[in-house]
Amino acid sequence: xxxxxxxxxxxxxxxxxxxxxxxxxxxxxxxxxxxxxxxxxxxxxxxxxxxxxxxxxxxxxxxxxxxxxxxxxxxxxxxxxxxxxxxxxxxxxxxxxxxxxxxxxxxxxxxxxxxxxxxxxxxxxxxxxxxxxxxxxxxxxxxxxxxxxxxxxxxxxxxxxxxxxxxxxxxxxxxxxxxxxxxxxxxxxxxxxxxxxxxxxxxxxxxxxxxxxxxxxxxxxxxxxxxxxxxx
Length: 232
Ligand code: BTN
Description:
The chain is α+β, with helices and mostly antiparallel strands. It folds into 2 domains: 5-179, 2-Layer Sandwich (BirA Bifunctional Protein, domain 2), CATH 3.30.930.10; 187-230, Roll (SH3 type barrels), CATH 2.30.30. The protein has 4 helices and 12 strands; from the N terminus they run βαββαββββααβββββ. The termini are far apart.
């Protein structure tokens, strides 16, 4: 990964710039191509949120050329989270793949945008934003567990880790994810579609990477999309 790499000062979003490159008929980005930016004017987060590029942060997108079977997609975000945690050298993963520091502050986030065509994804663009040396108010940074690591070092190590984990067998990914999770065993709150917020205990992830939450009364709820909040 990263053999083909384009570096920009300021662009709207590395996700869009990489997709445009991937779809360029004359000079199409290969599998593993990377777009890195110093700043983004319109960085995107999960669930329609925006992503602010803090000073001293690393923001990039990675192209995964398909076709990828749809069944492989749910574990990709977890695999990316495991790679992120390994490269960052500390912290823990909040389901599905937010990296939190030891105080529970968010250090990095991952956004996977797949282009679906029938029963497969034609390609997917994986975007990662990491606070390296500084962080916006209330957030954490990688320097709290790896003082002095540079953005270039982190990018190189993370691309190598992604290359391994995105190709690893699902079982290995799920076990590695469980080992660095800060969600399992904890009380969590989530909001099912069309319902009010519910609280239970996160007990495990299933083979699809969904979170299993034990509700009072012994019912187990499968949470496959959206946000969970760690409570208590
Ligand atoms: C999240 O936690 O909500 C995911 C944040 C993902 C941010 C990264 S920064 C690089 C790439 N370009 C974007 O516009 N978003 C992702």
